Automatic annotation (TrEMBL):
Listed GO MF terms: NAD(P)H dehydrogenase (quinone) activity
Domain FAD/NAD(P)-binding: 4-312
Name this polypeptide is given: NADH dehydrogenase
InterPro entries membership: FAD/NAD-bd_sf, FAD/NAD-binding_dom, NADH-Q_oxidoreductase
Length: 402
């Protein structure tokens, strides 16, 4: 009887889990015995790390030829429910039909979603760059500003959230606004961060460089303040300040996909499932968690994988390999990713490349920007539809980050 590996999600972790599982099955010569099925709305990999940019035509590569080349099947739909006690998942297909799929191993790779707290007006009056559709909606809105009468609110953008995504988004905004409104427009761009400092999770070492870059790009910074209300004409901050704007971009944090809550066991404050070294859900041995839904140790020093494509690539390869390895009799592979880098795009200023969890600065400005562009346009993209080439980099030991 054919055994089934069901993978929920075709983001970075899901895609690489599928490729790595297919590689393991091929190594064992068990292609006829094990089916690998990816369930996601479409067979595309949305390049979320680039959604602060505007080259949308490059941000959803088609995975169908690659999946076909390695023997992975795709089902257009979403996993609605996981029944771990009977090894089944409920699926709603793209055509609206509901079905139940059995599995021998299940890989949860549904990623994360933007955290949307109960802020008055947030749902009605804000934009975001969390998903491709929402990034395109923001872009259309920005372009429509040129048709409105010139006011301070029209010419002002407020980005709520001064973390990694917020910084990359806000440093691009002055240039985007000038391209739309004209070089002579009197624009204003503000980033708002609740913490006392900008980029609180990025640490103290790169902060002076980030602050300098924001100033050079013409971005105003508000720290120790949060957005408490949004309406059609502006935002109100917790400090009492009122900023007139027609454009509020929300980037304040992420949470694991809600499906993660259906996996038994302990979860962290972001909703991630605690994973063992093989990326099994600790309380459910036949379920693997990977990418943004997994709380996984990267080393023996207390560090855990971040919600980032850098970690998702390796997490996916390890989870997929192990899910298949358990079925075909290959050794499993513990997850480890001790080398950590960040590459923060800072708009016209350039980019900042750091190494280590203490984020020691290695590259800045134009050299950093060139590295960022290589990461964004080459390293994080899936391989071509070449079975051997795909398997060569689907090894759970493979490392892309320099």
């Amino acid at each position: 009887m054919t055994q089934k590996i069901v993978i929920a999600g075709s983001g970075f972790a899901g895609t690489w889990a599928a490729l790595s599982a297919a590689r393991a099955v091929s190594l064992a010569g068990r292609e006829r015995d094990v089916e690998i099925l990816v369930v996601s709305p479409t067979p595309h990999l949305h390049i979320r790390p680039r959604l602060y940019e505007t080259a949308f035509e490059e941000m959803a590569p088609d995975l169908a030829p690659l999946f076909a080349a390695v023997g992975v099947r795709h089902l257009a739909g979403v996993v609605d429910a996981v029944h771990t006690e009977r090894h089944e998942v409920d699926v709603t297909g793209a055509d609206g039909r509901r079905s139940t799929l059995p599995y021998e191993r299940f890989v949860l790779a549904t990623g994360s979603r933007l955290f949307l707290p109960d802020v008055p007006g947030l749902a009605e009056h804000s934009f975001n760059v969390d998903q491709l559709a929402s990034a395109m909606t923001l872009d259309a809105h920005l372009r429509s500003l040129a048709e409105r009468p010139e006011t301070a609110a029209r010419n002002t953008v407020v980005v709520a959230g001064g973390g990694f995504t917020g910084i990359e988004t806000v440093t691009e905004m002055p240039r985007r606004l000038r391209d739309i409104l004209g070089p002579g427009a009197k624009i204003r761009v503000v980033v708002v961060e609740q913490a006392p400092v900008i980029g609180p999770d990025l640490g103290p070492v790169p902060r002076p460089v980030i602050e300098s870059a924001l100033a050079e790009c013409g971005v105003e910074v508000r720290t120790s303040a949060g957005v408490v209300a949004i309406d059609t004409d502006g935002v109100t901050l917790s400090s009492g300040e009122r900023i007139a704007t027609h454009t509020v971009v929300w980037t304040a944090g992420a949470r694991a996909h809600p499906l993660a809550a259906q996996i038994e066991g302990e979860h962290d404050r972001y909703g991630r499932v605690h994973a063992d070294p093989q990326l099994r859900a600790r309380s459910v041995p036949d379920v693997f968690v990977t990418g943004d839904v997994a709380l996984a140790a990267t080393d023996d020093e207390g560090h855990h994988a971040a919600m980032s494509c850098q970690h998702a690539l390796s997490l996916g390869r390890v989870a997929g390999h192990n899910a298949a390895a358990e079925l075909v009799g290959l050794p499993t592979h513990p997850y480890s990713q001790p080398k950590y880098v960040t590459c923060l795009d800072l708009g016209p200023w350039g980019a900042l490349f750091t190494e280590g969890w203490d984020r020691q600065i290695k590259l800045t400005r134009e050299v950093g920007k060139a590295t960022k562009q290589t990461i964004n346009t080459q390293w994080i993209y899936p391989p071509q539809a070449d079975r051997e080439a795909a398997f060569a980099i689907a090894n759970p030991d493979h490392v892309i980050v320099p």
